[in-house]
């Protein structure tokens, strides 16, 4: 070690002890000389007293001079010895400081050498990492180009598909208008023509109890999907105490003037939309959060807190089946247009697709976040879902994978609805108290609706399109019901009847000229507007 090396290098140096001993010897010698001098002085005094001759006086004087010289010499030797001792101590300290400086310099050189080696290693590692980074960048650039190309191709395909859907929808609208005009002109004399349409299109309807979904019927073609002009509702025509607890859902039948309400009092009620009278009550075991209607099979689905989906016969009110598979509350349920499929969304972060007739689960999708709402496209191949993490996601049911995802809201999404006109737009509502009209291809907002009236009440609050897609209706926490223009985002009508938060709204499909809006609130009330 350094201390051992230092002792070996300085083993022959004079030690401080030796210096002190030498100084003590000189001091003792000086005292002896002083004692001798005192004795000589005394002897001289005696001699001075005895000898009085001049020769003797001269001798005494010489002896005194000798004595003074001896004293001076002794003092000089004593001072010189002290200086030598001090110089030796200073020399030792200097040597010790020099040794420490040499040791520190040696350690510094060693540290510098170690750091130089470390720097060399780091420079080598940096070179390797830089090469790897360049490789990753090149790979990322290549993949980005591939993704950009694939996204462009996908956008092109989606645009073409949506345009074709819109074109088909337009043609269907024209056909409906032509048929409606023919029906109005022919009146009661169209029995033969109606029979011809029935034979050409689908024949008789499939029996709902057989479990098979029927095809498009003559009545479906002869009855228009919506009227040519939608009238904005302005007046409350009736209000009823529908349930004993909050009403969470309301939905119209697409074939009859009937609507359905689901409540936390564990029941679903069927209402005559013309008279406001209750036709039937469907009993469950847990609070009902969402309701869907399948007029093709004559079924009503209700789901909520018991993690299952209960199915009733629309005409008899009897329970038909119960679908199980979710592990938590179900917030959303919807049927496909042809009635063959049913989709559900849950707080267990899954979306499930079921066979409507058999109740078999045909697909389960991990949704990454609580699903508050969902809707199926008109062809039944695409789902749009709204989530607690503020995201709107689009799913391809052929692959079960997400083909689009954005977070256009700053609060959890409570409603997602495809436009009735070809599905090229999506209506979304969220807890950030905004409603957006999104482009279905890019999920970018075309219209934003936000004003002092709009206050979304709960996590499953529903807004709804008008049949022509030009308006929407939504309820607010302050009890108001707002009708907005989907093109401009302007409030066209504020409907007031509720004194409690409005949880959900529905707009009648507009068949055969029937136009109506329904709203339900937290106090169990149902209001109808025309």
What does this structure look like?
The protein is an alpha+beta fold and 530 residues long. Among the domains are: 2-125; 248-473, Methylamine Dehydrogenase, Chain H (7 Propeller). Helices cover 36% and strands 30% of the residues. The protein has a 4-stranded antiparallel sheet with strand order 1-28-27-26, with no helix packed on it. A 4-stranded antiparallel sheet has the order 2-3-4-5, with no helix packed on it. The longest helix is centred in the N-terminal third of the chain and has 133 residues, at 54-186. Mean pLDDT is 83; it is low at 188-227.
Q: Helices, strands, pairings?
A:
Elements: H1 2-9, H2 16-50, H3 54-186, H4 191-201, H5 218-222, E1 236-241, E2 247-252, E3 258-263, E4 267-272, E5 278-283, E6 288-294, E7 299-304, E8 308-313, E9 319-324, E10 330-335, E11 341-346, E12 350-355, E13 361-366, E14 371-376, E15 382-387, E16 392-396, E17 401-406, E18 413-418, E19 425-430, E20 434-439, E21 445-449, E22 464-465, E23 471-475, E24 480-485, E25 491-496, E26 502-507, E27 517-521, E28 525-529
Largest sheet, in brief, is:
4 strands, antiparallel
- Overall morphology: rod-shaped
* Backbone CA Rg: 52 Å
The CATH class of the domain at 248-473 is identified as Mainly Beta
Sequence of strands across the biggest β-sheet: 1-28-27-26
Question: What is the name of the CATH superfamily of the domain at 248-473?
Answer: YVTN repeat-like/Quinoprotein amine dehydrogenase
Number of strands: 28
Protein name: WDHD1 first WD40 domain-containing protein
WD repeats: 240-281, 288-322, 323-364, 373-405, 495-530
Coiled coil: 23-50
Keywords: Coiled coil, Repeat, WD repeat
